[in-house]
C-alpha cells in the first residue's frame, strides 16, 4: 500500500481506455445469484448471509467502476475551464439516470397500480431512494421492497462521490479511500456499542463505505499504478485467503451467537462481516479485471453467466416481487400459478428445487423482457453522452 501511495503515475498516453471488462459481467451473475439463493432458500441455507455477501460484492464492484469512470473523466477534462466540472458532473449524472431511473420508476408505478401494499404506503420514500433511511429511522423492514435499500445506498453515494473525487487531488485518492474504509468500520462499531438495532449499521450509506472505498483503491491502482495492480491481483492466492478470512468471520459470528446475549448480531456480524466480505470482493473482482483462467474463466465467461450478468439489475429489482419468503401472500399470482401447475404435476412438490426453478424462470423472463423492451433501447441513449 505504501508503494501505491508513491507518485508513480502512468503518463496519460499509457492510461487504459474505459473498455468493457468481460469477466465483470460474470461477477455480477455470481453476486445476484448469491442474493437469490439467500432470499429464496430461507430455512434451507443457515449460518451464512449469502445475500449480504452478494450485495457487498456489488458495492465493491460499483466503487471500482464509478471511480474508474470519474477519474478518467476528470483527467480527460482537466484542460478545460474550471477543470471541466460542469461536463464532468453532467455526463456522469445523465448516464446514471439513463441506466437506473427508467426501469426503477416504471416498476414503482406498476406496483402502485396493482396495489402492492408497501409501494403505495411508502411511495415517497421509494421514489426518493430513501428506503434505507426509512428502515434506519423506523427500526423496521418494509416488506417486499426491503431489497431496494441497497439501490438507495448506491444513489446516495452518487450524490457526493463525484464531487469528492473531483476536488481531492489524485495523489490523495488512496488515502481518501482508506479513510472511507476506516470511518465506515468505526461507525458500525460505534452503532454496535450503542446497542442500536443491527440493521441501522447494515443499511445506512456511511456504514457501507468500506466496500466502495476498496473498489476505489482498486480503480486507482488499475488506472495509475498498473504494476502494483498486477502484482496484487495476478495470483489467485489472495482470493482464496480472503475467502477463508470471510469464512472465519462467519464461523466466529455463529460461535458467538450461541454465547452472546445479542445472539447472531454480535460484533463479528455487525462490524467485521461486511469488511471481510468487501476484502473478498476486492480480490475476487481485481483478479477478474486481469482475467481468470481455467474453470473460473469458464464460469465467468460462458454465455449463460454473461447474459445473466448483463440483466442482473432486472433480476435483483424484480426477484422480491416474484417471491418473498416472508411477505408473499398465498393469493399472490406466482404462488397461485405454482399451485395450479402442481395440481397437474404433483411430483413437482417432491423437492423445493422445482419451485425455486419456477421462481427463477419467472424472474429471468421478467428481467429479459425488461432488458430488451426498456433497458437496452434506453441505454443506447448513453452514446450521446460519452466520457
TrEMBL record:
Alphabetical keyword list = Acyltransferase, Membrane, Transferase, Transmembrane, Transmembrane helix
User: Pfam families attached here?
Assistant: Acyl_transf_3
Q: Which GO terms describe its biological process?
A: polysaccharide biosynthetic process
Which stretches are transmembrane?
Answer: 49-71, 97-114, 123-142, 175-192, 198-224, 236-255, 275-295, 352-374
Annotated Gene Ontology cellular components are: membrane
Q: GO terms for molecular function, please?
A: acyltransferase activity, transferring groups other than amino-acyl groups
InterPro entries to which the protein is assigned, alphabetical: Acyl_transf_3_dom, Acyltransferase_3
Q: Which residues form the Acyltransferase domain?
A: 23-369
Give a yes or no for keyword Transmembrane in this entry.
yes
Top-level taxon = Bacteria
Name this polypeptide is given? Acyltransferase 3
Organism this protein belongs to: Fibrisoma limi BUZ 3
